[in-house]
Design brief:
The protein is an alpha/beta fold. The protein contains 9 helices and 11 strands. The protein has helices at 17-30, 47-50, 67-78, 87-91, 98-104, 199-202, 204-218, 220-226, 232-238; strands spanning 4-11, 34-38, 55-61, 82-86, 106-110, 117-123, 137-141, 145-148, 153-160, 173-183, 186-191.
Amino acid sequence: MEKKVLIFQGGWDGHEPKLTSARFARLMEEAGYRAEIYDNQDCLADREKLCEYSLIVACWTMGTIPGEYCRNVSYAVGKGTGLAGCHGGMCDAFRTDTEWQFMTGGQWVSHPGGDGVEYVVNVRRGSSPIVEGIEDFVVRSEHYYLHVDPSIEVLATTRFPLVNYYHSSNKPVDMPVAWTKFWGLGRVFYTSLGHHDDVFDKFPSSQEIMRRGMIWAAEGKQYAVDNGLTDERFMNNAKMY
């Protein structure tokens, strides 16, 4: 089976979707996958074709998605295709689509202080091979505050508050920066790092986490095949949508 990756890019240009898409395609091609980049969402129209991919990478900030397209992605991931993304390209995409948020595991709500906030990414050692051997590191970028799914497996966190804003009257909290979760047979990976493409160059651990996360998500399909897993117990409910 050919290992293919579908990357769809668009939405708000401030997150440099073309640059990040090209970077992610290169990283996956170096790992032995063939990457296809699309500048529109029509690549999501055929759900059976989506099931042929090992991985879907979302690089689309804000905007909207036709309900059918979201359900197609949900169906493909449920059958084993991986899903991965970073920053607003996945967890600030399609703010009105709750199915997308349910599948991806979180939604951006604020970045107090804007761009240029210096903060520490605290790696949860032993949480996943995705972060094995990576030490805590400092990032200067947007500091993402997210509403998150309680079922996610947290790989790295950051401490809030650093910037004085309304939220600072609450107790300090450790906000997830990177996580994994499952959607049916599919593996889902997200990191909030990557406001601009150059974040991955300035803070190399950011790119390494993204690279490993994409590969981990992409490997889920073959794992399901090798272990004889089926999606029957999930798809009975999926037929309602």
